[in-house]
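User: Here's a structure from my thesis project, written as structure tokens. My advisor, Dr. K., wants to see whether a designed sequence matches the one we expressed. Can you design one independently, without my sequence as a hint?
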């Protein structure tokens, strides 16, 4: 065995490891089969999203996330769709977002559309020290006071 063989073997092993460790993006229909509780308009937005699981690379943050099977990640572009198009926030709400993480995929819990807006505030804890009591108090104060006008 020559040095050239070892180099090729090592390069092939690295390529295989990097491919095996990449996030798996799955469409909405595959992630949540049989969901029928959304309107056609809501479904058209959800069908555009790529739900990623596993190892997620965040180059902007120089970080890698390793999500367990019951969590999924949305890219910055998909995060903007959720924040702006689905939840109705202003476009500036998505500026600088690295993505969003949602957890506990269960049949009895609606995906994205039914998630309480506290998740949006809770995601700010990622990588930061949180004051959970303050978050809970703020969420309780704001619960049920969605005053946005329908356009």
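Assistant: Designed independently from the structure alone:
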């Amino acid at each position: 065995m020559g040095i050239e063989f070892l180099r090729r073997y090592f390069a092939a092993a690295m390529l295989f490891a990097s491919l095996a460790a990449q996030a798996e993006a799955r469409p909405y229909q595959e992630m949540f089969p049989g969901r029928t509780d959304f309107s056609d308009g809501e479904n058209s937005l959800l069908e555009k999203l790529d739900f990623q699981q596993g190892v997620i690379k965040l180059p902007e943050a120089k970080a890698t996330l390793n999500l367990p099977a019951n969590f999924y990640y949305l890219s910055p572009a998909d995060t903007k769709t959720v924040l702006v198009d689905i939840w109705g926030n202003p476009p500036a709400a998505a500026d600088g977002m690295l993505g969003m993480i949602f957890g506990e995929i269960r049949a009895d819990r609606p995906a994205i559309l039914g998630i309480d807006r506290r998740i949006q505030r809770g995601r700010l804890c990622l990588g930061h020290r949180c004051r959970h009591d303050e978050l809970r108090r703020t969420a309780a104060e704001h619960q049920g006071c969605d005053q946005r006008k329908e356009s």
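When you compare it with your expressed construct, this may help: Strands lie at 24-27, 50-53, 55-58, 63-66, 71-74, 100-103.
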